[in-house]
């Protein structure tokens, strides 16, 4: 891992197909993103639209699908800084400088080494301009919360289907 990327692994008791479905289903994404979430047809080159809050509309933030291999990989470009990110920055100058930065998010899905653990999801968010990127610092805690919520949602669904 380089200093200008964020990599996070999490094990989820689900199948690769269920995990990929959750990553690509707009309604499911709103659940684990907390009312936000992406929507696309998930074909390479297609736009990725974002619901901007529970009562918001989907907006085009100039993101596009980079890779889509069901049950294995999903990747898309990540938007530049938006007005809602202003509070992440110490100064207006820092905020304005961050507008040129564009990164990418990649989800890699593999069977866990121990089958009882389900799947291993590796999220890599990279392409930041510098290791000091304020957006890199901000997404690091955000992705941990989002993926924890995704894990809970999927594992609760698995438990419910067994009961």
UniProtKB/TrEMBL annotation:
One Pfam short name: AHSA1
Domain Activator of Hsp90 ATPase homologue 1/2-like C-terminal, residue spans: 14-155
InterPro entries: ASHA1/2-like_C, START-like_dom_sf
UniProt family annotation: Belongs to the AHA1 family.
Organism: Streptacidiphilus cavernicola
Superkingdom, natural source: Bacteria
UniProt protein name: SRPBCC family protein
Entries under CDD domains matching the protein: SRPBCC_CalC_Aha1-like_GntR-HTH
């Amino acid at each position: 891992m380089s200093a200008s990327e964020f990599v996070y692994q999490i094990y989820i008791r689900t199948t690769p197909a269920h995990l990929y479905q959750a990553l690509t289903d707009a309604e499911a994404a709103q659940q684990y993103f907390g009312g936000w979430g992406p929507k696309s047809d998930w074909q390479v080159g297609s736009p990725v639209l974002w619901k901007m809050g529970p009562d918001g509309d989907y907006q085009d933030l100039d993101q596009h699908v980079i890779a889509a291999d069901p049950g294995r990989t999903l990747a898309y470009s990540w938007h530049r800084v938006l007005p809602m990110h202003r509070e992440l920055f110490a100064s207006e100058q820092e905020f304005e400088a961050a507008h040129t930065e564009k990164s990418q998010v990649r989800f890699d899905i593999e069977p866990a080494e121990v089958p009882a653990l389900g799947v291993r999801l590796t999220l890599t968010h990279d392409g930041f301009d510098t290791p000091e990127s304020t957006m890199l610092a901000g997404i690091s805690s955000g992705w941990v919360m989002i993926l924890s919520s995704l894990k809970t949602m999927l594992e609760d669904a698995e438990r419910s289907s067994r009961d």
